């Protein structure tokens, strides 16, 4: 029981420490109002992509 108990104490301790760290990090991010989201990356397609349905049309005689 001692080994299981100490494992549970360690698990609960890490959960508490992680929760406190996450709350503090979230609080730091809210204090920065000048943070602007980055522009989405531009995607340029330079060739025609075949349609998925072209494979089902087939060549009928």
Short structural summary:
The protein is 54% helix and 0% strand. By secondary structure, the chain is mainly α. It is elongated and about 75 Å long.
Terminal Cα span: 78 Å
What is the H-and-E element order?
HH
Structural class: mainly alpha
Number of strands: 0
* Uncertain stretches of 5 or more adjacent residues: none
> What is the makeup of the main sheet?
none
Please state the overall shape, judged from the principal axes of the Cα atoms.
elongated
Mean pLDDT: 80
- Estimate the helix proportion, in percent: 40-55%
Percentage beta strand: under 5%
Features:
61 residues; mainly alpha; single chain; elongated
Explain what you see:
It is a single chain. This protein is mainly alpha-helical and 61 residues long. It is 54% helix and 0% strand. The chain is elongated, with a radius of gyration of 27 Å. The model has no long low-confidence stretch (mean pLDDT 80).
List the helices and strands and how they pair.
Layout: H1 2-30, H2 54-57
């Amino acid at each position: 029981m001692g080994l299981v108990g100490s494992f549970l104490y360690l698990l609960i301790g890490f959960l508490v420490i992680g929760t406190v760290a996450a709350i503090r990090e979230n609080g730091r991010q809210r204090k920065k109002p000048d943070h602007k989201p980055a522009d989405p990356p531009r995607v340029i397609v330079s060739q025609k992509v075949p349609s998925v349905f072209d494979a089902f049309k087939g060549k009928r005689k």
